[in-house]
Amino acid sequence: MAVSILYLPFFITTYLAFLRYVSSKLSLYFETIPVNPKPFLNNLTGKTVIVKLKWGMEYKGFLASVDSYMNLQLGNAEEYIDGQLSGNLGEILIRCNNVLYLRGVPEDEDIEDADRD
Description:
- The chain crosses the membrane at residues 6-23.
- Residues 36-108 form the Sm domain.
- It is found in: Nucleus.
- Pfam families: LSM (PF01423).
- GO terms for molecular function: RNA binding.
- This protein folds into two domains: 1-30; 37-104, Roll (SH3 type barrels), CATH 2.30.30.
- The protein is elongated and about 65 Å long.
- By secondary structure, it is an alpha+beta fold.
- The model has no long low-confidence stretch (mean pLDDT 83).
- It has helices at 8-30, 37-44, 107-116, and strands at 48-53, 58-66, 72-81, 84-94, 99-104.
- The longest helix is centred in the first third of the chain and has 23 residues, at 8-30.
- Helices cover 35% and strands 36% of the residues.
- It has a five-stranded antiparallel sheet, covered by helices on one side.
């Protein structure tokens, strides 16, 4: 079934409008909700976190404290380089300007790690 040349511009404009509509809905769907960092960090204090540095290293440990500059103190810290455990470091301080991101570790993942040790 061939489409007449006369209807082709209509189909193209309709299709482009559909794509614009879908992309606008998807961008709303994938947007993240902004979170105020200070309450976020205060809620994670005393919990296990993973901190990724700008340079690629990751540190996993419990968040002992956070200061007003958002420097992080981790206890029982482990260093991971390229996803592999590099070593146990104990207590460390991470200067704020080195942090790429910080995320909490779900409690069930924390329990699995303890079972492996």
